[in-house]
Specification:
single chain; three-stranded antiparallel beta sheet; 133 residues; Arc Repressor Mutant, subunit A; mainly alpha
Length: 133
Amino acid sequence: MARNTSDFVLSVIEQEILSTLANNRQIYGFQIAEAVAVASQDKRHIGFGTLYPSLHRMEKKGLIQSCWGNEEEGPRRRYYHLTPKGEKALTEMRIYLDALFEWRAVAEGDDSSEDGHGETIEVASTVKVDTRG
């Protein structure tokens, strides 16, 4: 199957960054790393050598935007927020993950597509995100 170059899959770190930004209007890089550590109960940490290249790559993809803050004291901070494209990518990834979580293998010859609770479910085999905006 040929891959359409306008489609992509979000990496785990991209999912974490978009999820963190979803509930925050604008936050800076250290706050994103801190949110991941707190949410994972210190089981997951994003190093700055991974975080900032990821933020830059996501900005180039149009998933997030950044702007410099006007701090009167201390170093200037770069603040990040979701774009509509980032919101759409996160929503589509969540739909995909929910469908994957609900997916059940069907025994050969079984035509049913019930989820075990008497409800019919449909699961997409792939999730494509249109990055053209």
